[in-house]
Amino acid sequence: MQSKTAPAIRLEDYQPPAYRIETVDLDIRLDPKATIVAAELSVVRQPDTAGHVPLVLDGDNLKLLSLEQNGKTVPEDHYKTSKTALELAAPEEDRFTLTITTEVNPDANTQLMGLYRSSGTYCTQCEADGFRRITYFPDRPDVLSVYTVRLEAPKTSCPVLLANGNLKETGEIAGTGNHFAIWHDPHPKPAYLFALVAGDLAKVPDSFITASGNAVELNIYVEHGKEDLCDWAMDSLKRSMRWDEDAFGREYDLDVFNIVAVSDFNMGAMENKGLNIFNDKYVLADPETATDQDYANIEAVIAHEYFHNWTGNRITCRDWFQLCLKEGLTVFRDQEFSADMRSRPVKRISDVKLLKMHQFPEDAGPLAHPVRPRAYQEINNFYTATVYEKGAEIIRMLKTYLGAEDFRSGLDLYFDRHDGEATTIEAFLTCFEDATGTDLDQFSLWYEQAGTPLVTADTKYDPDQQTLTVSLSQEIPPLPGQKTARPSVVPLRFGLIGANGQDLEISECDGADVSGGVLVLNKARQKVTFKQIPDAPVLSLLRDFSAPVRLTQTLPSEDLVFLARHDTDPYNRWQAVQTLATQTLIARTEAVQQGTSHTDTDSLIDVLRSIVDDQQLDPALKAQALTLPTEADIAQEIGKNVDPDAIHKARNNLRSDIGSGLSQHFRMIAEEFSAMGKFTPDAESAGKRALSNRALHYYALSGDPSASALVSDRFAAANNMTDRLAALTILVHEAMNGSAEALAAFRDRHQSSALAMDKWFMTQATAPQDETLDAISELMANPLYDATNPNRVRAVLHSFATGNPTQFARPDGKGFELIAESVLEIDKRNPQVASRLLTSFRSWRALEKHRSALAESALLRISSSEELSRDCRDIVDRTLQ
Ligand code: B3K
Ligand code: ZN
């Protein structure tokens, strides 16, 4: 527990390990309260280690039972243990065997790091530093070892015994009721990829033949009775395996690939070699309990963990500062996979929405950090949107900048050159430099500089010269502790659109490389002149969101309307609608604050009408275009002195105006799709449901007296969770007649499914009414709520703090107090879940004075606790700094 800030770990202090561990032989006898772990390590001193230094092994909360070196008990004066380490006096030999026996208590492990039990099943989580809670070990990603694991447990309670790699042997131990399994993983790996699972689980088997003809056994393990919920996950796994062969030439490399779904898990899933462990939320699905979004998430997370087999496992990180090496690249790969499986533009829009919702505020607030941080207090706090999502954007920019073919050659070289290694961002970029001859020095600034660059673009057309001049600039707004940022390489995909809506051919241009429709901005200020342009075109810039920047472009609103109607780039067409809506919402927020009447919205409604009427447009895209920026998006745009109530009011008014302005359109769409028949989870059907439910929501706000009955009917008639939850959300969030009955009906129908009930919790926790705060206390007292389960905590508290801006930032301070109290309470058991919840305060300084003072006092209350975990101490200190 930390009452003061601990010294930071710094990238510049990196030292290679003094000892390597070639092989690890684990013999684990499982017991709920006293599991015995015997670890035999073959230790090798590194030749370049200066002199003989002690061997320091990490440990956390371990009970040491015995320690032997080359089969002999180590005398007590040859080693010492502390809370965090075992230090063995400098050994004489260059190679020796160390046998360590420790005892751990899985049932007492509430942190869900190391070895713990979830609903009676033993499972592990070792990334980033959980292995040290199982045995003493150099728990760092650059120590790679070959593991052999023997597991022993009672056969009746633990018929399933799993570890990484291939199964070598199984057997029974006569007279004990115990059985054992021996697993061997031939691929050297760091300790964070170790995993074991033991319990009474059902197996859903399948198989896959790799491109080279190797047969791979695939299994998904779940609680008994949930076998039927695994079809989609298995299908996603097989598609991921094939796709990685086709798109990146990467094949699977073991005889078996196991996935286990557990119900208590701190995050989404974990890529342990050959034995992925998942939060069951990202495995289990059927139409009755999972939404279209759940199906899409399962597909993406299954793919993500599978893709780590190459980007993360075969090639791992030298140290945790390089986390984005595996995470950014793997997110990019899973995004591309989903784009190929679904609609590419819709996938891109939803990825960018998530980036702007999570990463942009992080990058603009006190928790901002470079994609490759230079220092950390607690590495588990760096599994952030910046490392993951901005990290993926950097990879995408690299591809845009180099072109698809050169990108692929660089990546092939990376796989070839670094297979089996723990490496760095520099080594990764060098592969692209070597493969293509491009200097990536300036490009590499993306990894070093925190903050979202602000790009401005100003266009001037000269009819006499027939030129279009674009004046561009880039800068990163100042961040505490960061030197003035240097201009980076910003690839801006663009088009010049003529009056007929078609892109112009570009024949001549000065001031930038614009080949392949990408304008490369690499100076602080840059003037680009397009020549031989007979009529003034409209510049469509940052197409496909080709760089993670904020773009300010001086476009008259008629040009925005033009782009919203005609841009051939679906992302920018969507963005134009968003920009129009944002401008309207900001003006309306100001009007609410000043008590004046609000601005005209006819042009926005006309644009939305043309989108609804466009027969060519994919329903999923229409649904995206009809979705207004969230209240959090608007707050972010406003940036300071934020009044969440004014934003809420302004957005509600606009939604009602759109609803009544287009009520007949919405009614028609809602009715047209309501009889879609049998549920299928494909992207096309999901898109139709999204549009239908969006239309239903607007129609509910139209003021039409029949709307409420239509929503209630939809709720009652829904044959799938997507439609049922959409109708429930409308009823509850709009406080409509029938909402209490619908909530009761939902609970009665779904109370046996914890994952479905999370949606019930979340719907109520995000209801924007004042009563929600009391409702939350009731939800937390509900027998179906479990404060020790991370999914339940996220469904109630996290969704309240991040998805209910007016109630979280209530002017009486009770929303902040609820979350502060909860953080302190959860922190005692599970610091990772607590510190994640605590990050919901990150934008507190942008709030108006009264609310920011309330947030500050809630934060100070957390900070004054003497008992804080390192995880929460780190976040609260940075949030307040
Ligand atoms: N690598 C894990 C995340 C581990 C989080 C540790 N606090 C899941 C993933 O990114 O695939
Ligand atoms: Zn990952």
Please, could you describe this protein's structure?
There is one protein chain. By secondary structure, this protein is an alpha+beta fold. Among the domains are: about 10-200, Immunoglobulin-like (Sandwich), CATH 2.60.40.1730; about 315-450, Neutral Protease Domain 2 (Neutral Protease, domain 2, Orthogonal Bundle); about 455-545, Aminopeptidase N, middle-beta domain (Immunoglobulin-like), CATH 2.60.40.1840; about 755-880, Alpha Horseshoe (Zincin-like fold), CATH 1.25.50.10. It has an eight-stranded mixed beta sheet, with no helix packed on it. The longest helix has 25 residues, at about 570-595. The chain is globular, with a radius of gyration of 28 Å. (3S)-3,7-diaminoheptanoic acid binds near residues 127, 269, 270, 304 and 327.
The proportion of residues forming helix, as a percent range, comes to 40-55%
Query: In CATH, what is the class of the domain at 9-200?
Result: Mainly Beta
| Strand adjacency order, main sheet | 6-5-9-3-2-12-15-14
What's the Cα radius of gyration?
28 Å
Give the bound compounds.
(3S)-3,7-diaminoheptanoic acid, zinc ion
**Beta-strand content bin:** 15-25%
From the spread of the alpha carbons, the general shape counts as globular
List descriptors.
881 residues; alpha+beta; Immunoglobulin-like; Neutral Protease, domain 2; 8-stranded mixed beta sheet; 5-stranded mixed beta sheet; 27 helices; binds (3S)-3,7-diaminoheptanoic acid; binds zinc ion
